[in-house]
């Protein structure tokens, strides 16, 4: 069973500003963890650091997958080992169709896991699964031949992110505010897709500041994230408490009382 482990993780921006200030967290296949925090708390920085974005430096601590220290690995190597990040703001890639992108990504992963030997997915197998997953996620088949995220609506972008997750079959997926910008119908579809995929072969870290996505993806564990740190942990009931009390209830008062 794959386990992603963060040990005393500290993350800084390129200018040295520390954003993540010592996070300990374990996510295993079959589990759904929710990291909930207000805007500006460092949630997206945490997700980018996990995936290996070069603009975010791990200055202390370690990131492990299946006990292997992957702190110094590049984003592509982390992806090949089974990590996946669904972006809050997916970027358009002009000139690369959704179909071409997915086939290239799948083939690169298969090659890496096959010791560097080419092992391309058979086209009929790829096409069959792609169409099945597009139908499940209510992704228009017309999007398959369009450039990735180029002119897509917010809902289309997020559906295609989950489509990528379904096709690439990661072991641990990080979803960075996947619910942002979605109407209720798109939210139900995206959340349903995530819920269907999580199981013995996939664990998920759902990063959000709203409780609403957790109405459709019930987490096993909830972690309250404030000012770069986890300040409270619990089960799904903690998300409901957050909704009722807000983040101020979890924010330490300044030393010396109110100022």
Describe the structure.
- The chain is an alpha/beta fold.
- It has seven helices and twelve strands.
- The strands form three sheets. It has a six-stranded mixed β-sheet, with helices on both faces.
- β1 (3-13) and β2 (18-28) form a beta hairpin.
- α3 (98-113) runs parallel beside α5.
- The longest helix is centred in the middle third of the chain and has 16 residues, at 98-113.
- It is globular.
- The termini are far apart.
Give a brief outline of the structure:
This protein has 259 residues and is an alpha/beta fold.
Attribute tags:
single chain; 259 residues; alpha/beta; 4-stranded antiparallel sheet; 7 helices; globular; disordered C terminus
Measured as a percent range, the helix fraction is 25-40%
The major beta sheet can be summarized as:
6 strands, mixed
Give the rounded overall mean pLDDT.
92
Q: Going across the major beta sheet, what is the strand order?
A: 6-9-10-3-11-12
**Beta-strand residue percentage:** 25-35%
Structural class per helix/strand content? alpha/beta
Distance N terminus to C terminus? 49 Å
In oligomeric terms, what are we looking at?
single chain
Q: Given the structure, what is the number of helices?
A: 7
What is the H/E order?
Answer: EEEHEEHEEHHEHEHEEEH
């Amino acid at each position: 069973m794959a386990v992603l482990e963060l040990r005393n993780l500290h993350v800084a921006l390129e200018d040295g500003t520390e954003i993540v200030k010592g996070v300990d967290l374990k996510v295993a296949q079959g589990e759904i963890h929710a990291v909930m925090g207000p805007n500006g708390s460092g949630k997206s920085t945490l997700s980018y650091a996990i995936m290996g974005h070069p603009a975010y430096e791990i200055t202390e601590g370690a990131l492990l997958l299946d006990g292997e220290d992957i702190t110094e690995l590049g984003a592509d190597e982390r992806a090949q080992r089974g990590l996946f990040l669904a972006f809050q703001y997916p970027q358009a890639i002009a000139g690369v169709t959704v179909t071409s992108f997915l086939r290239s990504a799948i083939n690169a992963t298969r090659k890496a896991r096959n010791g560097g030997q080419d092992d391309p997915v058979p086209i009929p197998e790829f096409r069959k699964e792609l169409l099945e997953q597009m139908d499940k996620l209510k992704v228009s088949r017309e999007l398959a031949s369009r450039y990735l995220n180029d002119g897509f609506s917010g809902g289309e972008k997020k559906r295609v992110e989950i489509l990528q997750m379904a096709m690439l079959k990661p072991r641990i997926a990080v979803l960075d505010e996947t619910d942002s910008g979605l109407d209720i119908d798109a939210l139900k579809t995206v959340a349903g897709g995530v819920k269907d995929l999580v199981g013995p072969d996939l664990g998920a870290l759902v990063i959000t500041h709203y409780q609403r996505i957790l109405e459709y993806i019930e987490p096993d564990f909830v972690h309250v994230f404030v000012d770069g740190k986890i300040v409270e942990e619990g089960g799904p009931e903690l998300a409901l408490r957050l909704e009722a009390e807000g983040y101020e209830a979890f924010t330490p008062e300044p030393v010396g009382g109110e100022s």
